[in-house]
Amino acid sequence: MPVITLTTIINAPVERCFDISRDIDIHIASTVHTGERAIAGRTSGLIGLGESVTWRAKHFGIWQNLTSKITEFKFPEYFVDEMVNGAFKSFRHEHHFEASGDSTIMRDVFDYRSPLGVLGKLADFLFVKHYMKRLLIIRNGVIKGEAEKINN
């Protein structure tokens, strides 16, 4: 089961980083290259505990829908979204936030399982894990940019 862990330092208050990270509109801006949009559930604004969102995006040349739900939430320390329906066999994305002086340490733990057994594991090794890590890095860059531009 692949796990991607990323740490991003953001020069902004932890509360701001937390809210920007759960903002549907910011998420859409961070995935513009996939044509991603929210089509059901919470489709804009700040998503919260128990809420879900269904995304439609093009990945690997195929339009796909994925529904995730916020299953854990403790402002401003962490929240978790988990796949309810989609192309993965499962995924759990933990978003952790820690204040560090005037900055925030944002840590993502993305734990997923691809479908198709051995073929899925081969796809993970060959390209899926790299693709997902790249998506998260781009997303975190947008979050960082949004949080820090308010300081300027």
TrEMBL record:
Q: Which residues form the Coenzyme Q-binding protein COQ10 START domain?
A: 43-119
Where does the signal peptide begin and end?
none
In this record, what's one Pfam family? Polyketide_cyc
Q: Which InterPro entries match?
A: COQ10_START (IPR005031), START-like_dom_sf (IPR023393)
SUPFAM superfamilies from the UniProt entry: Bet v1-like (SSF55961)
Known CDD domains for this protein? SRPBCC_3
Question: Which protein family is it in?
Answer: Belongs to the ribosome association toxin RatA family.
- What name has this protein been given in UniProt? SRPBCC family protein
Q: Which organism is it from?
A: Mucilaginibacter achroorhodeus
